[in-house]
Amino acid sequence: MLSSAGLAALGAVPLTSAPSVHAAGRDPFRLGVASGEPAPDGVVLWTRLAERPLAEDGFGGMGRGSVRVEWQIAEDERFRRIVRRGSVTTGPSAGFAVHVEAAGLRPGGEYFYRFRARGHLSPVGRTRTAPAPGSMSPLVFASASCAHYEHGYFTAYRRIAGHDPDLVIHLGDYMYEYAPGDYVGANGIVREHTPGKLQSLADYRRRHAQYKSDPDLRAAHAAAPWAVVWDDHELEDNWAGKTPGSKVPGFSARKRNAMRAYYENMPLRRSSLPSGTKIRLYRRLRWGSLATIHLLDTRQYRSDQACDDWLRTDCTARAATGRTLTGAAQMRWLSDGLRGSGARWDLLAQQIFLAQRDFALGPARELSMDAWDGYTADRDRLFAAIQASGARNPVALTGDVHTAYAADLLRDFDDPSSARIGVELVGSSIASDGDGYDDKAANAAILAENPHIAFTDQRRGFLLARTSPDALVAEFHSLPYISRKGAAAKVAARYTVHDGARTLSG
């Protein structure tokens, strides 16, 4: 964790010197700092200036002029050993966001970074670069998803920060688009959204700013680099490709606004800069030769959900061969990447439940049309690609469903003896749906109906995984409540995936 030690000057200006003309004003770093996209020689540094984060125009009270922002990277958090520095200019056209693609760093290194603007110094962030190619350095990562601001506090983010992970993988639903009270959690409205369902660019910018006003989220960003990908609520519930998730007109404009605001508020590289209604979010990160992380986008290229989106017992359309979840280009990219990975572990960071999940007891089937169960032809293509690639240890990392699961992935879920494709680790939500619960009877029924699923838990939390050449050890951390601040997290379950086994062991 970052200490509270005093910080040295930024550049040549000592902190004890007289403040600039702006220094007496409001702090522009109220949204914190973040880093992401670690490579062996560099990382993305992020901040977004906002003196008044919820200003109605979406510009954070920064006015209409440009602002010069200085940045530094050091090997120590007192900034006595500064290794890189520079300055950039941001302004209204960028939503006052800053994305620095820092390079020239050593592989596998821990670094500290900060910014300065208008006489104010930002909080200090901790980051690290990926190991060098060929390295088998261990990887400790957390995966998280689904943080609804109105449903409770983001204590789980604070608990993630406390583990000092090497990497945080966020699997989507970073924020929610609903108007206040439109989606009420188990504990009612714990704290209220900014007004209105999101429509304009200012709306999306303000909502992102509200989420980053949470100190626990800021702590998790400052603790480690992140790799992010979205799901649906960063735009609107259950959207699919060109099909809106609601009957509210103006979907194309909302998509443009949501994509732009998402980029402005995430530590992404310029390769993810949106163009109109398109944004490239599927991409690949490498952690030496230990792990390749394939980040998938299962929203932007999918066919519309079959049979009206949700649970269905009699939807034959879900199996149509022409239906796609990833789109053909992304599936080819993934197939090629799996073949060429050569890593000990291939992590598929994606949004929606991959294994079959039958909610109906007995011979009938009740399946979610918004998950891979609604796109079975594409799931078959994915599993065939994994098998053909020779990937040694495929592991799917999933969010979306607000419940933790651990499951084996079978080539044929109706045949328990069929080939093991890999495993799926599903983290619960950070906050969505409010305080969770432990329904032992319901859990037992789900496990009995789905023998490939080993574990389920409806409490809030996150996944923490320790990955080495020999094994991936996954811990499911759960919190007893989020309707109040300060809950402790405990390990609800722990599973090991041994090298080459492609199955869970308790």
From TrEMBL:
SUPFAM superfamilies: Metallo-dependent phosphatases
Gene3D superfamilies, per the entry: PhoD-like phosphatase, Purple acid phosphatase-like, N-terminal
UniProt signal peptide: none
Phospholipase D N-terminal domain sequence ranges: 31-129
Highest taxon in the source lineage: Bacteria
Start and end residues of each PhoD-like phosphatase metallophosphatase domain: 141-475
One Pfam assignment: PhoD_N
Listed name of the protein: Alkaline phosphatase PhoD
Source organism: Actinocorallia longicatena
Encoding gene (name): phoD
